[in-house]
């Protein structure tokens, strides 16, 4: 057999192996892609409330149904037509797909979706990052920001240290408003802490911002959930709940916050709160 023929056979083998690997990746990630597509399709066919119900528990704890409905309306997701996922990845029980979704009038939006499996082994949306539509828009549109590995929100809650970081921090930018939600986190021995925070503030303010107790209003606020109890700011104490942005540089923002909190179960306090976010 000639050397040239051996080279051709070798190249053919590489092509066959590559095709087999590609087919295998497509097969094992099909459910992942189908879940991501189904999430957006549900917004269009059944409304954002139905899609929200299909998302993971962590997603629901990090973002309220009304906040998701507002985001879906601003992005025009009710006009969803199709999705194409060029990149698919599964690692350590977590999955992600990246590609584009097509809306009414041929509008295409770049999207990355992170998913996790529930107790029944079904893929559910944990977070997503989307470049908002800009054609024909006169006002500033919101942009969902995927948290980077360096993003962190920490505090002393009820005298105990608490911290969420990386993919457990979900940031939304709506005009000047910054909305930071945290998801449940894995702590020691594989246990899950259900404590989550929702923090909303003016990303352009330079002074101290007083935090309110109702995050349904378009104003600075802080709410906390422990899974069983929902805490709001305690207005009966003398010291107000406050937040201050301490630095903003090159898309990186840091700040501090503190608050006395109350629920039907009792009172607690958030001290030495700190956040560090990457905002594009």
Can you tell me about this structure?
Strands 5, 6, 7, 8, 9, 12, 13, 14, 15, 16, 17 and 18 form a twelve-stranded antiparallel β-sheet that branches. Strands 1-2-3-4 form a four-stranded antiparallel β-sheet. The protein has helices at residues 3-28, 30-46, 48-54, 57-62, 65-75, and strands at 82-91, 94-102, 108-117, 123-130, 143-146, 152-157, 160-165, 169-174, 177-182, 185-186, 192-193, 196-202, 208-210, 221-225, 230-233, 242-249, 252-263, 266-278. Helix content is 24%, strand content 43%. The N and C termini lie far apart (59 Å). Strand 2 (94-102) and strand 3 form a beta hairpin. The longest helix is centred in the first third of the chain and has 26 residues, at 3-28. It contains five helices and 18 strands. The chain has two domains: 30-140, Nuclear Transport Factor 2, Chain: A (Roll); 152-278, Lipocalin. The chain is of the alpha+beta class and 280 residues long. Mean pLDDT is 80; it is low at 6-28 and 135-148.
């Amino acid at each position: 057999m000639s050397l040239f023929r051996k080279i051709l056979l070798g190249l053919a083998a590489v092509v066959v192996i590559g095709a087999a690997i590609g087919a295998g990746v497509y097969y094992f990630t099909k459910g992942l892609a189908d879940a991501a597509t189904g999430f957006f399709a549900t917004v269009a066919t059944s409304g954002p409330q139905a899609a929200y119900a299909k998302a993971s528990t962590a997603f629901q704890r990090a973002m309220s149904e009304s906040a998701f409905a507002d985001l879906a309306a601003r992005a025009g997701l009710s006009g969803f037509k199709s999705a194409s996922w060029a990149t698919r990845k599964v690692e350590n029980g977590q999955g992600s797909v990246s590609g584009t979704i097509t809306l009414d009038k041929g509008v295409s939006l770049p999207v990355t979706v992170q998913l996790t499996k529930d107790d029944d082994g079904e893929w559910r949306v944990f977070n997503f990052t989307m470049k908002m539509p800009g054609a024909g828009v006169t006002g500033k549109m919101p942009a969902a920001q995927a948290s980077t590995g360096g993003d962190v929100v920490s505090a002393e809650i009820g005298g105990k240290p608490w911290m969420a970081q990386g993919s457990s921090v979900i940031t939304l930018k709506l005009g000047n408003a910054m909305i930071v939600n945290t998801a449940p986190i894995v702590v020691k021995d594989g246990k899950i802490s259900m404590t989550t925070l929702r923090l909303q503030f003016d990303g352009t303010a330079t002074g101290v911002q007083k935090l309110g107790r109702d995050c349904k209003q378009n104003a600075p606020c802080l709410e906390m959930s422990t899974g069983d109890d929902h805490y709001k700011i305690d207005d009966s104490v003398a010291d107000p709940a406050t937040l201050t942005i301490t630095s903003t540089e090159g898309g990186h923002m840091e700040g501090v916050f503190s608050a006395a909190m109350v629920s039907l179960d009792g009172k607690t306090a958030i001290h030495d709160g700190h956040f560090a976010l990457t905002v594009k």
